[in-house]
Amino acid sequence: MKLLTHNMLTSTVKGVVNGFPLRIEVEKTLEKQVDFSADFLRNLFYKVDWKALVEAAQTMGYAELPEEAPDSTVLESEDFLKKFHYALLELHLEEGNLVCPETGRKFPVTKGIPNMLLHEDEV
Amino acid sequence: MSSKIARIDLVSSHPEVYEPCDDSFALVDALLSDRTNLLDFHPRLCMEVGCGSGYVITSLALMLGQETTGVHYIATDINPHALQVTSETLKAHGVHAELIQADIASGLEKRMAGLVDVIVVNPPYVPTPEDEVGQEGIASTWAGGENGRRVIDRILPVADRLLSHKGWLYMLFLTSNNPSEICLQMKDKGFSARIIVQRATEEENLLVIKFWRDSPVQADTNGMVTTTKTEPFMAMGSLGSLFSRLSFWRSDNSSC
Ligand SMILES: C[S@@+](CC[C@H](N)C(=O)[O-])C[C@H]1O[C@@H](n2cnc3c(N)ncnc32)[C@H](O)[C@@H]1O
Fold first, then answer.
1. Are residues A37 and B83, on separate chains, in Cβ contact within 8 Å?
2. Which of A117, B43, B174, B217 has the most CB atoms less than 10 A away?
3. A57 secondary structure, DSSP code
4. What is the pLDDT of residues B23-41, one digit of tens each?
5. Which Gene3D superfamilies does the entry link to (chain A) (predicted)?
């Protein structure tokens, strides 16, 4: 699971208000090389929740992203785009859990696939 | 350039996972026949709901290319074996999609609302007793309850929510799902519809319908707002007569 996907996932357990961002418990991470596309990254920049991405990357051992949400001028910086690319698309959570920030409910990630299914009494 | 799709001999399998069948082929044929439009459209985010063996999402990824051209793929299934098989199928073809075990798009609906450009679905569509829907095992891959609509009717509002303002939905139906009624319901949500592929096998009449939002307002990269032309909404009369014609068709190449 890429951090881009993590950035799109929320907990929908009954009673949860925001359910975002899911806290990451890491058991195993992977790096997978992805072709670089500046255009794709510039487009995504506006859709990503910056704080959630920075925290997720830090949990996964990558602390190179600026803490504060940068303004769009960084999109001209190759150095920035490379880091953004790495954190968002190349860093993968292979095994671990995604934890609901409000209920503590764990959504397991197995072989890179998060299980977002809820039990009947959680819907 | 020849259009590549997934190779059947490279599609992985599992006893509890739906194997590519006439419906899967019809859906991929529909995507192929619309490929030029898809390439012009240049979607960023493509999604499959109910990916099964991964045959369809792999074919779409091969057709449209990977991140180099800036396309990202996501596929969901409720069945964990299906995701495992899809992961193997993608790998065997050298393409990637993010896989999520979900009920339709559970967990994604909030943050991905309005972001998905293309959704493809071959749903469980076979009319069955209601209690067969969503059970464990292979039956859940096709069991659709009354008129085959139980899961379909839950997918349509989710697709509406997830699709971007210019988004497209390609969905497979049987004539017994009453697709003309579905088109009318989608029209109420602001979608136009067109049949892309129609195919009669021994047991079933399959249709792939493409839905898109009426006169979507597009913001281009300069922030200018432009209105794109859309194809006219298919007249219901001709849809109706097409369906009745289809039900008399018979072909002898049912093989699944
Ligand atoms: C007819 S099969 C299609 C499989 C594959 N896309 C193909 O075309 O060969 C339907 C798929 O939808 C999945 N499915 C059924 N109900 C679902 C749900 N509520 N959410 C997500 N997937 C579901 C089934 O597990 C099955 O893999």
1. no
2. B43
3. H
4. 999 999 999 999 999 999 9
5. 2.20.25.10
Contact at CB, A47 and B115, closer than 8 angstroms? yes
Element (H, E) at A109: strand A106-110
Cα pseudo-dihedral B136, B138, B142, B148, rounded to 10: -40
Q: Is there a domain that residue B17 lies in? A: no
Q: What is the ipTM of this complex?
A: 0.96
**pTM, two decimal places:** 0.90
Min Cα separation A73/chain B (Å): 15
Is A121 a member of any domain? no
The letter for the amino acid at A117 is: L
A30 touches chain B (CB under 8 A): no
Cross-chain Cβ contact A113/B109 below 8 Å = no
Alpha carbon of B101: minimum distance to chain A alpha carbons (Å)? 5
Asked whether residue A122 is assigned to any structural domain, the reply reads: no
Interface residue of B81, B88, B106 to substitute, partner A, most A CBs within 10 Å: B106
pLDDT in tens, B81-122: 999 999 999 999 999 999 999 999 999 999 999 999 999 999
Q: What is the pLDDT along chain A (123 residues), one digit of tens a residue?
A: 999 999 999 999 999 999 999 999 999 999 999 988 888 899 899 999 999 999 999 999 999 999 998 898 999 999 999 999 999 999 999 999 999 999 999 999 999 999 999 999 999
> For chain B, what is the domain count?
1
Which chain A positions have a beta carbon within 8 Å of B102's beta carbon?
116-117
Which residue is closest to A92 within chain B, CA to CA?
B98
Task: Find all residues with CB under 8 Å of A118, minimum gap 6, and list them.
Answer: A12, A13, B103, B106
For A116, the closest of B44, B100, B115 (CB atoms) is B100
Would the CB atoms of A114 and B100 count as touching at under 8 Å? Answer: yes
Domain that holds residue B57: 22-216
* Residue A37 to residue B59: CA distance in whole angstroms: 22
